[in-house]
Amino acid sequence: MSSRRSRVSEEEINRLVSKLQSLLPETRQRGAGRASAAKLLKETCNYIRSLNRDVDDLSDRLSAIMATMDSSSAEAEMVRSLLRP
Q1: Which positions fall inside the BHLH domain (predicted)?
Q2: DSSP code of residue 34
Q3: Which of 8, 11, 24, 69 could form an S-S bond across to 76 if both were Cys, CB 3.0 to 4.6 Å?
């Protein structure tokens, strides 16, 4: 009984795939063409990996910048303020 309730309808899957497709830059650039769900999931994983690399790179660059600053300087305080939630 619970397996029946946990199943996702094909309509729901199609709706979620469409939402995911609208979030990925590569699929938005291609236009309205419909990609397979498997291909879309692969592109999503690649995009997330790319975002992770970008975050790592920015973190490294920020660390390098902060290492060259006087920790009590106005510039260092400005950077710290930007990083606060």
Answers
A1: 1-51
A2: P
A3: 69
Q: DSSP alpha helices (H): ranges in 1-85?
A: 2-6, 10-23, 25-30, 37-68, 74-83
DSSP code at position 21: H
- pTM of the entire structure? 0.67
Joined together, the tokens standing for residue 73 give 């300087």
What's the mean per-residue pLDDT of the chain? 84
The CA distance from 21 to 24, in Å, is: 6
Phi, psi of 7 (to 5 degrees): -70, 140
pLDDT in tens, 64-80: 888 888 888 998 888 88
Residue 3 CA to residue 21 CA, distance in Å, equals 28
